[in-house]
Each structure stands twice: as structure tokens, then as C-alpha cells.
Amino acid sequence: MVLSFSGARVLVTGGLGFIGSALGRRLTDLGADVLLVDSLIPEYGGNLFNIAGYENRLKVNIADVRDEFSMDHLVQGRDFLFNLAGQNSHLDSMRDPYTDLDINCRAQLSILEACRKNNPGIKIVFTSTRQLYGKPDYLPVDERHLLHPTDVNGINKMAGEWYHILYNHVYGIRAVSLRLTNTYGPRMRVKDARQTFLGIWIRRVIEGLPFDIFGDGMQVRDFNYVDDVVDAILMCASTDEVNGQVYNLGSDETINFNDLAALLVSVNGSGEYRLVPFPSERKPIDIGDYYADYRRIRGKLGWIPQVNLRDGLAHTLDYYHQYHDHYW
Ligand SMILES: NC(=O)c1ccc[n+]([C@@H]2O[C@H](COP(=O)([O-])OP(=O)(O)OC[C@H]3O[C@@H](n4cnc5c(N)ncnc54)[C@H](O)[C@@H]3O)[C@@H](O)[C@H]2O)c1
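# nicotinamide-adenine-dinucleotide complex -> structure
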């Protein structure tokens, strides 16, 4: 598929975060006129260093997607909206459900209202999550699997996703949603376990400290390298054939936590880990084994992940060995 974004005016919410910044940098390289919007809320994944080297090639607006007046203005004149801003901690969504509600649900509706009022011709790609499915009834999980999230975050992301699909169907505001699985790579938030266990594992192996696996380590997951996810997002933006649809992303390279830990240590050349009991507040919201059936997007757009776990982890570790000062 030819990806042509030269001269395209794009807006990326969450653009200073992990995936948003990768997308912003890629679109800049493709010749797009890129505007990143991010609130830089402390403890979230936004980091100005994520766009190091690109500061003069793209624009950044520090704004909060909950601010309707800002969004009314920012969507104007844009051809594409890549809507990635989100509160991404499952645990935080349980401790502070209203903030998650405001960002992942209410703000999504107001972003769509901003488009309806000010730029109904815009094309939107929304990043949803596998968390919508909750604890799988069967594996691999396809898009027909029931949605029964195990946490507040999954419920609010579900609403956020369906507002996009609704606005596509009712108002013709072209939108597609991608349900991402665990995504990793350089510039992911690794400071602590707030967003993902893999982040803190990476930090600790680099620091030469042991890291913890919760439970028996037999939980199976799939992982996508960030560049593969950016490919899928751009492919969805490039065709109107996917409008109004939801697609899983995933990988055929499924792995349990014990094997993933061993792989990380092997790629790093050193490291230690230990099994610890599941923390009591995490256990009820854990989804157990998960991996996606991504045949739908593969069949429609030919998307297949290109980067295997070993190579992806090697790129990620190289990055943090070099730049960890900017991330913890
Ligand atoms: N990384 C993953 O494994 C994964 C898995 C499933 C879904 N996703 C989805 O992908 C998207 C991007 O995630 P990421 O991994 O890059 O996370 P991230 O935390 O690195 O990026 C999210 C960005 O959104 C910004 N943001 C949060 N609230 C905001 C607000 N109110 N206004 C403006 N900006 C705000 C943050 O500052 C941050 O820069 C999210 O929508 C997330 O739900 C990610």
C-alpha cells in the first residue's frame, strides 16, 4: 500500500507520548504538516525528548483534550486526526475513575463534537485497546468476541471507541478504530509499572536490578513493536474502505511472561528476575492469557507485523542504555 502524506495537515493527540511521537516523527519524514497536541500531565507518557531532533520540523501545542475550546480550534484545517491521547493506567482508572472517565470517554465525545462543528471532512484514526475484551472467553480473540472489560479504563475506552464509530455512521465523520495489543519500543514509558510491566522490566535490567513477574509467569501475551503499529495506523488513514470499522492488532509470536523475561535478559546480556505473588489490587483486573486474532486487518490491508520480539527488544534496550537519563 502506498502511503502518501506529503503536504497532508495532520493533528496527533497524545503526540508527545510513546506511540504518538513515533507517528509524528514518521509523518514528518513523509512530508506531512504535523501538529502534536499533548497536555504533558506529569506521570503520563508524554516527554519532550520523544521528539528530539524534530523540534523544528513539526509543531507542538501543549493543550488538554478535555478543553473543548482548544479542540474546537485545533481540529480546524486538518486533513487527519490521529486520536491517541489517553489515560493509560488500568490501576489508576480504578483508583481515580473520574479522571479516566473525563479523558477516555467525555473528552472523546467533545473531540468528535469539535470535528462535527468545525471540520466534518476530517479523517480520524482512534487507538483503542485489547482491554475492551476483558478476560478472554476464547483465544485468539477476534473482533466478534464479547466486550466485557475488567476495569474502568476498558469501559471508558470502549465508549470512546464507539463514539467514533457512531459519528462515522450518523454524521459521516470518517473514523476507524484499532484495538492495540501490548505495544513496546523506544520512548515507551519505563519509569515504573504504572502503564505496563514491560517498561519497569526494561528499566531494571538496564539498572542491573532484579525485576518481578506477578503470579506463576505462565500468562501468555502478544506484543507489537511500535513501528508496526505506526504502519497499521497510517494504512488505516490511507483508505476509506476501513471507515466505521474496528480492527485488532496482534502478533503470531505469543509468549508467556517467564519466556519473555528470559528473552529480555538474554538480549540484554545480563539481568535477574523473580516470581512474586500477584499484588492484591491488580489480581481482580488482570485478564490472564490474551492474544489477538488479527486476520481481519491482514485480510483487508495486508498488515502483518514485521519486527520480531528479539529484534524489537534489542532496539528498545539500545535506546534506553543510551538515553535513560531522559526517562527516569
Ligand atoms: N502502549 C500500549 O501498549 C497500548 C495498548 C493499547 C492501547 N494503547 C493506546 O494507544 C494510545 C497511545 O498510548 P501510548 O502507549 O503512546 O501512551 P502514552 O502514555 O505514552 O501516550 C499518551 C499521551 O497522551 C497524553 N495525554 C493524556 N491525557 C491527555 C489529555 N487529557 N490531553 C492531552 N494529552 C493527553 C499523554 O501526555 C501522553 O503523551 C492510547 O490511546 C492507548 O490507549 C496503547
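# post-check
DSSP finds ten helices and 13 strands in the chain.
The longest strand covers residues 123-129.
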